[in-house]
Amino acid sequence: MSDSWLALEPGADPVERARTLRRAHETFTRAGTVSRPVRDVVAASWRRSVRAGVGPDGTASVELMDADLSAYRADHPLARVMPLVRELLGTFAADGEHLLAVCDAHGSLLWVEGHRATRRRADRMNFVPGARWAESAVGTNAPGTAVAVGRPVQVFAAEHFIRRVQPWTCAAAPVHDPRTGRVLGAVDITGGDGLAHPHSLGFVQAVARAAESHLALSAPERPAEDHAELTALGRAEALLTTGGRRVRLSRRHSEIVVLLALHPEGLTGDELLCALYEDERVTPVTLRAELARLRGVLGPGRLASRPYRLTVPVESDIAVVERRLRSGAITKAATAYAGPLLPGSQAPAVVRMRHRLADALRNALIARRDPDLLADWAHAPWGEDDLDVWRALATVRPTAAARSRLAALESELAVPGRW
């Protein structure tokens, strides 16, 4: 197949392909082996589903309802593009007896609209607003897989990991924040076998790109001089949006800007020196040279001295996660957490902040005992060896995969444990 993200190559018989996929799915769920013609993207998703503890007879859970769902949707950035999505996809969905759906970056469905009879059928498998359709919750499916891999994808028939979803076919494309590049969610079209066509994938991808363009044009205007945005989680080098420019900072400049953003009152040269360098032999001259170069990157008037401070307020993804944790919005905090703070940095103050933020979030997840949130953390690169999270996950979702991984970790770390 020329494009592995498409479900069927031109001329393929959908009935025969569905039959072959059902056999392959049964083989995988029984023996753990993947046979042709299962696509690589689907095979990888099936494996992630098993590692997350998803079973083929599972179902989606509804996590947000009524006022909570309404409030969350109203605050979500994709609410601004829903009129456009309805205009582009609504008629197609209604006339073709399909559904249009929009999920957030965590795989939670925010809107499900379309043909009335099709909606009633979808209700029976909890494909409804407020339900969690992340891969870690219900296995392979177009919206969940699209946000997991950050790519448009089709999922046809028995490519779905959950058996009750296998009569359906869907195509979804992620929508990115035009300023930061982060995945905000996905646009999905769900229906019958007729959607296993290149046009449906191209269509949702075009709608997602139109949504991104609309977000870029409709973003609230801010005076260039009075606001900056910093993205530093899960990145070796931070992104700073300021003065109408989006700047990728060097590693050292990333560390400096993160520290100044966390200390809007400013830091003295000595404080910065201690915060940035483990080596006490580094001189103030070295730091002043770095700050001079940073001034050139930021532009005139944006970095003051005595003490060193940024002259514009900075909204950082670090602060977003911290605020959500303080307010008890654990799911939203986990959604905003894209990974450890500047993971390659050895600056002492950055290392401390990295551990403090990660520990606060993981402890909140352990206390919350939500199996899907724990699975998302455990299967992320930063959580693969997190013994406490795997213990919590094996307690609330005691699948063979979770118990096996926990036993392996306890053996590797020589930590007593009994399962």
Automatic annotation (TrEMBL):
SMART domains in alphabetical order: Trans_reg_C
OmpR/PhoB-type domain span: 244-310
Keywords: DNA-binding
GO BP terms, alphabetized: phosphorelay signal transduction system; regulation of DNA-templated transcription
Superkingdom per UniProt: Bacteria
Signal peptide: none
Matches recorded under InterPro entries: GAF, GAF-like_dom_sf, OmpR/PhoB-type_DNA-bd
Protein name: GAF domain-containing protein
Source organism of this protein record: Streptomyces tagetis
Organism placement in taxonomy: Bacteria, Bacillati, Actinomycetota, Actinomycetes, Kitasatosporales
